[in-house]
TrEMBL record:
Coiled coil: none annotated. Gene3D superfamilies: Restriction endonuclease-like alpha-beta roll domain. This is Uncharacterized protein. It comes from Fluviibacter phosphoraccumulans. It comes from the Bacteria. InterPro entries: Restrct_endonuc-II-like (IPR011335), YaeQ (IPR009822), YaeQ_sf (IPR038590).
Length: 177
């Protein structure tokens, strides 16, 4: 019998002062059975960083044609492709060729650093690609606020991400948007 996804509900209040983007979003995230809570929360961070009415979560780890998070406009054009983790160069190339902009959010400390060292030369040729390396400390902060039902307030200002879930002291992430 196949394992089922775990469902998370998240109400986000996003104030992105850097992009002049403000909004409230009620989201449902499905955690694939092989996906860590850390990756789920980084997908949520990705949504907050690039929030828009057209931004959506992909169909999950089992569907290689989808991004982790992506923005597809009403005419069907992929405006933004966001991957989470350490994708191979072929996947990055696909993302950059299919979308106006591509973003990779890496995490995991040393493996992330090694991935960047191995791929930096090849990836710098993609002019529509941005790479964000999330520190292990920031990943841990995200995991600490995880819950099956979440109410999160995100403020992005000068490249810093401030996160408040009303039950803990607000945390600051150093991800660059």
């Amino acid at each position: 019998m196949a394992l089922k996804a775990t469902v998370f509900k998240a109400d986000l209040q996003v104030a992105n002062l850097d992009q002049n983007q403000f909004g409230d979003y009620s989201l449902t995230l499905a955690q694939h059975p092989s996906e860590t809570i850390e990756r789920v929360m980084i997908r949520l961070l990705a949504f907050a960083l690039y929030a828009s009415e057209d931004l959506r979560f992909g169909r999950g780890l089992s569907n290689e044609e989808d991004a982790a998070v992506w923005e597809i406009d009403p005419s069907g054009v992929t405006r933004l492709w966001i991957d989470v983790g350490l994708p191979d160069e072929a996947r990055v190339k696909k993302a950059c060729s299919r979308a106006d902009r591509a973003v990779i959010i890496t995490y995991g400390g040393r493996p992330s650093d090694m991935w960047w060292q191995q791929n930096a030369n090849a990836l710098t040729r993609y002019k529509n690609l941005s790479v964000i390396q999330l520190s292990p400390e920031d990943s841990t902060k995200l995991v600490e606020v995880a819950g099956r039902t979440m109410k999160l307030s995100w403020t992005i200002q000068e490249g810093m991400v401030y996160l408040d879930n009303a039950s803990i002291t607000p945390i600051v992430l150093s991800a660059q948007a």
